[in-house]
Amino acid sequence: MTKGRVAVALSGGMDSSVAALLLKEAGHEVIGLHMYLWDSSRSGYQARQTERVCYILNIPSYVVDLQKDFERYVVDYFCREYKRGRTPNPCIACNQHIKFGLLLSQALSLGANFLATGHYARIEHSKDGYHLLKAADLSKDQSYFLYTLTQEKLKHLLFPLGSYTKTEVKQIAKRAGLSIAFKPSQDICFISQKNYRAFLSQRLSSIPGEIVDAQGVILGRHQGIVFYTIGQRHGLGLASGKPLYVIRIEPEHNKIVLGDKRELYCQKVTAQRLNWVAGKPLLRSITAAAKIRYKSREAAAVLFPPRHCEQGEAISDIWFPQPQKAITPGQAIVFYQGDEVLGGGIISNGEIKMQNAKNTEQK
User: Fold this and answer.
1) Number of Cβ atoms within 10 Å of the Cβ of 241
2) Which domain holds residue 226?
3) Known active-site residue 94
4) Annotated catalytic residue, options 79, 91, 189, 266
């Protein structure tokens, strides 16, 4: 790989700090970029830690203020999806629009040849383009969050940690004296202590409605659909002789639908907002592996070529020979062949009405 100027997205944490260290040791000219995304005490802590890391590594640092963009592309999206009865993944939106959108543009404008991050994933280049691969440490693999990357972006990206295990990264950090800069990360950076209900309550008006079973029998009342997700069992506020789960959310009727565990399973998924990493959509059906959420296991699936809904958007059907539990609209579904990420999309689960729709062939 040609040595050049590399901008590293620094959060003040271990992974991004070690990524910067590895690149500097490899002979690159390294600069640090710290994104200011959210006005909180945590943001201030991260900024101070980033300054400390840049001092230890003796590299210049820049602060990029992306608060307004983060509010628009991530926080507003997060709230809007919950209002629609969907369960979003804000980290994927952040990667697509903020880190590998606006921050990448900023890095290139500063004369960098590449933007590097501390993600656990790999990029390989061959005669037919760039390939996005799982990390060597599968227990820390983050390729699921990166399926929106394109060929144009991949040629400007580096993931220095992709071939390392987490244990090795910790050892490198300790050797370099970077371990003092660490603080445990949280799942969603703009929500403290995973208190989704309080956060959404501050930003969305909640309208109480009916909780029903699959036959429409009223079982109780809910306090607002934004507080529920598919597969939820606890916090329903109902007394029942058997376990009940949220199997469907109907925002158009302001209803939460409950059922037993068997009713959580589904074989057919429809995905929208598709991205194919190679830049070319499927022309024929293929068998691949798919993940319906980050922490789920891959499952064998048949991917069908994209078609268009009445709004003109390309969507794809995915069929699982083995039924999958709690397929959730709003979550990402990501496709793999071996270690390679083929692409992915957002689960709509048949919400989009089709023109001249035909039943998907189930093999």
Assistant:
1) 5
2) 205-259
3) yes
4) 189
